[in-house]
Each structure stands twice: as C-alpha cells, then as structure tokens.
Amino acid sequence: MKLWKKIYIIFFICFIISFNLAGVAIIERIYNKSINREVKESLDEHKNIVSEIDISIHMFNRIRSIDHSSSSKSIQDLIKEYVNTFRTGGEYIEILDMKNEEIFSNLDFNPPKYREELKALSRNERKYIIRTIDDKNYLFVTGIMDLGEDYKISYIKDVSYIYQERKDQYRFFFIFEFYICMIFAVLIYFVSNMLTKPVNRLIRTTQKISDGDYCDRVKITSKDELGTLSSNFNKMAQEIEEKINELEKNNAAKKMFIENLTHELKTPLTSIIGYADLLRTRKVKDKILWDSVDFIYSEGKRLEKLSFKMMDLILLRADDFELKSEKIINLFEEVKKGLKPKLKDKNIELIISGQNDEVTLEKDLMKILLTNLIDNSIKACEKNSKIQLSYYENGDKRIIEVADNGIGISKENIDRILEPFYVVDKSRTRANNGAGLGLAICKRIVEIHGARLKIESRENEGTKVKIIFQ
Q: Where in the numbering of this chain does the Histidine kinase domain appear (predicted)?
C-alpha cells in the first residue's frame, strides 16, 4: 500500500473516531443536563405538592372545628378535591397508603406492579426513577406525606420529549457527519498527496539513479524534515556520482595501463625474438651478429628499466615511509651530482638557488622525484641550456621548483602526462628509452609527502614543475 493511502486511511479513521466521540459526548451531555434539570424541577414540584396538600388539610381542620357541617368530609375526599384541580398535561399524581393501596390516581396508563421506589421508603426521603411504559418515558418522584397517617405520594411526569430530542440530535448528527466526512475525504486526499509529493519525487529520482542516471537530483521545495531528507539524499547522490566517475576513470586508467604495458612489452620482445631467431636459424656475418647482439642487449636493458619502474610504482603504494628533516640545498647538490654525466653530455647547466632550510621529507624518494623531473628537463632542452632547481617560500607554503626553457608541453597534454605510460612525443620517448612512467612515480611520491604537484608549460617556451608543501 502506498504511503499516501496509508496517510489517507489513518487520518480518515482518526477523524471519524474523534468526530463521533466529540458528537456523542456533546449530545449525551445535553441529554444528561436535560434529565438532571427535569429531576430537579420534579423534586421541587413534588415538594410543592406535598406542602400545598398539607396546608389545605390544616385549613380544612380549622374550618371543620368552626363549621361542623363540613365534618362529613374525610381527608381522602379533601385530597381528591385538591388533586382534581391539578393540571394533567403530561403530569400525574398518585397517592397510596402504606400498604400501597390506591387512594387517588389520575394516571392514564398502567404502572408496573413492582415498583422499587415504593419499597423501604422513610420520612424525609424522596426517591425517583425513570421508566419506559408504552414507548414513553416517565419520571417517578415518590415520598411520604404525614396527614395524621402516612401516605405515599408520587409525582409522575412524561419526559419522553427529552429522549425524542436525543434521537433527533443523533439523527441530525449522523446526517451532518456523512456530509462532513465526504468533504473531509476529498480534503485529506489532496493533503495526503501534497504531503507525499516530495517522497514521490525522491522515489522517481532513486529509480533514475538505479537505472544509471547519476546526474539526476531531487528538487527541494521545503525546509521541513522532507526537505532535509531530500537535501541529504542529493548530497549522497553527489558523492555516489563522484565515486562512480572516479571508479570509471580508474577502470579506464587501468585498462589503458594494461594496454600500454602490453604494448611496451610486446615491442622489445618482438624485436628480441626476431633477432634471436635470425641468429638461431642463419649463419650471419660478424657485423650483423654484433649489431643483433647489441640490439638484443639494448632492448633487454629497456625491459629491465621498465620492470624497475613498474616495481617502483607497486612499492610506492605502501604508505609506510618515515619522513625526516633534511637540509634541502644539500639534497639538491646530491641530485645534481648524480645527474652530472647527463648534464655534461648536453652541456646543460643546473642552477641551484634558495636557502638551505630544513624540510620534512623522505630523502631517497625525494631524490627519485627530483632526478625524474630534472631528467625530463634534460630531455626537453637543447644543448647549452640552463635548468633552474630552486627552493622558496610563498606565504605559509614551501615550494620546490624545477624550471627549464625546453620544448614545453601543449595544453591538452598537461592534464594527462601524470597517467602511467602516457607520453607526449612517442618517438622522442622511445629514443630516450622511456616508457611514460616517470611522472606517474613523481605524482605518487608527492602524494606520500602530503604535497601537491603543479605543472605550468607553454610550447617552445619551457616548463615549470612545482612541488608545493602545505
């Protein structure tokens, strides 16, 4: 069952229960107040009747003591004369002796033989009870009256109109409730749909994301809990999209890595196998023999160099290097000393500048990093060029910079040169026995140091590589 239907049913049931409880409570309160009012009025009326009869009898006794002609009348006759003058519009009087024998009654219906209010009745006590007789409701109020002898006097009143009013109120209430429920049903239908609209939008978005559309987002239209949920979902979707893109990028990079690795291995192996097969199957001249052996040796060395760089990439995955404070200019001098033969071959001057500050680093890794960067600069520069290796501070950042005035790198290649096996000039790379792994290793070393690698370059103007320590 959908959420809006659950909300609809729950609200509708709660409304019906609450509306009925409130309606019944109001009608019953009105009914009880009416009954209590009638009981109070009837008790007062009963008291008045007893008092008036008592006064009439006392007057009769005084008159009889003066005028003996009226002595033939009995007290019963006097009561009958008084009661005969009593109004009879739904109100009745019944007088019984203590044996429940009827003295007088103007009832036009037959009361039940067993009447609880007549039992164990004492002076100064009045009892009342409501009875249903012939589909009518009567209020019986009974008490004892002392007229020399004790009599039971009952005042009976027809209170059927109160019960009829209650029935009419219930009938009106249920008709009114029907129309109210119809209106409320329509209203709660729109309200439940409005409340669940953000949830439906969220569901549609999740379905699109599950189908692969990671760019879709939930439209936020409120600042309530559902708005917060939508906002958090969008953040989660953004994170998922970024992770998916990163995974796709990594998979593409892995695929390219494997393809490039296969190509890098296949080319020298094909040459080695070809020359080896030539030497194995044919008798060749000494010159061809030495050329073949030399080529096999050079290709073998290239494979060895490639395997070493591959091993460097694998080993650099482990983050267990210990960083220590080292004098940076002293480190530069050591790197320069190691590159002296290559610098001499092209008569390139490596200029070192900066203060000999202490920098926290892993010495061997930093030497590999700087050697790779300077080696790339040597390859990019013409003979008799200059390469700058400098250290300086810029605000709270410390920067190592390698700058050359070589052939430079085009803008479209800068973003990809850190990828393994990616090379800008394949012919130049092949001539220098390169495989495109140097900068990938550099990038990993920089990450181990918690630094950032920034490359600035223009074609035919030169390249600057900055290692920025935060």
A: 260-470
